[in-house]
Amino acid sequence: MGQCLVTGQVGPLADVHPVIKGIANTLTVGARLVSSNIESCESYGQGRAQAAPVNKRVAAEYGVALNLLSKQRQVRIGGLSVLFGSLSSAHTLAPLAEQHVGNVLASDRDISGSLEWMESANAQPIFIAGLKGNSGRIAQSYLYTMSTHDLARRVRALHGRMADIHPCCSSVKALLDALSGADRVIDQTFKAIVSGSGAIPRQVAHTASAKIRENGPTPVLAAWCGATGFT
Q1: Average pLDDT of the chain?
Q2: pTM metric for this prediction
Q3: 3-state SS of the chain: helix, strand, coil percent to 5?
Q4: Domain total for the chain?
Q5: Do the domain assignments include residue 25?
Q6: Which residues of 27-54 are buried (b: 16+ CB within 10 A; e: fewer)?
């Protein structure tokens, strides 16, 4: 028995947290968000999962939710698994919202139709979470909540910054794939885009210019240089 970190309620605690499968850079058999297997991780004598106490029911439910998202609402961007979904799953527009958010994040086709839907339909609350795996463990890198209107506006802003050199209506992943091999830069840039910070990291321009020197220019690489003010 103990107090749950999630709900604050006192009840039976999970000794072992659920295995989550399909997250980038984890074992085939899956990995856990909460675990400890060395004495230094067992705070104040709290072994196994007790160092981060979560109610048994809550642990089971988040395990089901994350495994479902991993299968149905995941895109790989940089070195992370990006999970997304509606925060209002009972709303009749939720399935459409999730479909269009998935297109905007990772489609390999023109996303103008999805952006137009997200801008014109009633705003739907959504989340975007980044999970990073390390063998048998998973760490949450970020979690953003926003509306579909917010995400559409932020992606439009990215397209606007690139438009002078490369007018396009590509997904975020399609544009970031041009920087392949620079996972840290891709992760930082993706966070800047979806969070709405508006600041494209300067490292993007350095990465893009290095690729241009190595393999020759492409419209997308040149546009990334322009988006950071580096020409």
Answers
A1: 89
A2: 0.87
A3: 45, 20, 35
A4: 1
A5: yes
A6: eeebbbbbbbeeeeeeeeeeebbbebbb
Place of tokens 């959504």: 126
Whether the per-residue pLDDT at 107 is higher than 80: the answer is yes
For residue 67, tell me if it sits in a domain: yes
Q: Are strands 2-3 and 74-77 parallel, antiparallel or unpaired?
A: unpaired
Q: Say if CB 25 and CB 17 are below 8 A apart.
A: no
Range 207-217 average pLDDT: 93
What tens digit of pLDDT does each residue of 54-89 get? Answer: 899 999 999 999 999 999 999 999 889 999 999 987
Q: Where are the alpha helices (DSSP H) in the chain?
A: 56-72, 94-106, 112-120, 148-162, 172-176, 183-195, 202-215, 219-227
pLDDT at position 231 is: 45
Is there a domain that residue 184 lies in? no
Res 108: pLDDT:
92
Domain of residue 16 covers 1-71
Q: What one-character DSSP code corresponds to residue 44?
A: G
- The answer to whether residues 49 and 90 touch, using CB atoms and an 8 Å cutoff, is no
Q: Which of 119, 205, 102, 202 is nearest to 157 (CA)?
A: 119
Helices (H) and strands (E) in the chain, counts: 8, 6
Q: Is residue 33 part of a domain?
A: yes
